[in-house]
Structures are given as structure tokens and as C-alpha cells.
Design brief:
about 270 residues, 2 domains
Amino acid sequence: MLRVDAAQGAGRLACMKLWRSPAARTGASVAIATGLYGVSFGALGVASGLDFWQTQVLSLLLFSGGSQFAFIGVIAGGGSGGAALGSAALLGIRNAVYGMQLNALIAPRGWLRLGAAHVTIDESMATASAQADPAEQKRAFWVTGVGIFLLWNVFTAVGSLLGGAIGDPKVWGLDGAAVAAFLGLLWPRLKAREPAAIAVACAVVTVIVVPFVPPGVPVLVGAVVAALWGLFGVGKADEGLEPDVEPPHRANQGHDLEPGSGDERERRMP
């Protein structure tokens, strides 16, 4: 009985900390807003030719919005399965980079590593990395990642079931809803000139080649442009940034000298 009471007390304490956590509340709001976009994926998945279960399994196992939309976009455009998988895998590479960063931030252990890997997405990465406190970083990551996973799959099912009833998803703007949300999350983080320039260049090249290549290939072309820029580019990643803090050798210059001291007198001498 004592062990049960202690476990219940620890559980209540953890729930109270989570409820009072600003990071957890932020993660919950992001999860709700992002999870709702699962409706668009479910509707588009059915419209592209997948049945309910295929759409649902894709959402459960792949669980990466950009990759999922790339996959069904290629299928809907008449592209091959290989092109669809290639586009989805290419966009999913960023999650591996996120995983390396989040592994240092939240340090999951045991079976939690598998769960953390599966819910490592743009939103959980952004919400966790925005926190300064290590405990808040963990709360933000788990609340955001798990919350989006649950809601995304629920609303994917809703969108799949309603796909036939709502008609063409493009009429409702569902085809661009998740893309707009992704850009809204990503663009403010491109503070330096070079990353923003790379994003614009890749977008322009992708739009140009769309009429001339099979579905799924424009994304690969955009990735090649980004890779070539990274290999041969000469600009610095932080070019164009205003320094947040004045350099120490400037900030301290003339402020740490005692009036009348030898150094101060020497500076005043002609």
C-alpha cells in the first residue's frame, strides 16, 4: 500500500509540474494546431488513390508531415512508387539531423530512445530548442511530439473518412494548409542571409523544372541545388546577422577604468 500511495503521489506531483510548465503549455498549443492539419493529409491521401488503411498506416509509420505530403503528391501526379519514396526519404533526412541535436538536449534512455526518434519532427525540435531550462526542454519535446502524433493520426482518420464527402480538397485549401504551416514555422528561423537565399533558390529552381520532369523529381533537383551551394558556396552561415551582444573587448573599453588611474591618465594625454 505504501508503494502504491508513493507512486500515486509522485504521479500527481509530475502532473502538477507538467500543468504549470510554460513549455508544456506551449507544446500542447502547438500539438493542437498542428494535429488539425492531419485532416488535410487524410483527405488528400484518399483523393490521391490510397484507401483509408493505406493512408492511416502511412501516417502512423512515416509520421513526418513534409515526407507524407511529398509521397502522396508524387502518387497523385502519376509518379512511380520509387520517386515517391525518394522524395519522402529526402525530406526525412532533416529529422536525422534533428535527432542528433535532440539526443544531446533530452538524453533519452532505453526504450524511450525509440519513442523519441519517432516523434522527432520540426515542431518538437523547434519547441524544445526554444527552451533554456533542460527540464523545460524535455517537457516541451515530449508534450509536442506525443501530442502531435496522437492528434495527427486521429485527424488523419477524420480526413480520410470525410474525403469523399468534402469533394475536391483543393477547393477548401487543404492541399496548401500544411505547407503554409510548415513555412510559417521554418521561415522565422532563417535569420541569416545565406540559409534564406538557399531556400529561395531551391524554391525557384523547383518551380522552373516542374513542367519538364516527372513528378517527384523537382524535389530532388532542389536538394541538388542546396547540396551544390553547400559545397561551393563561399558565404558564411551567419552573414548578415546583427550581433546580440557587444564584443567583450569593445564593451569593456573605457568602462572598467577607475577615474584618475594611470591607464585613464594615459588615455587623456595627447
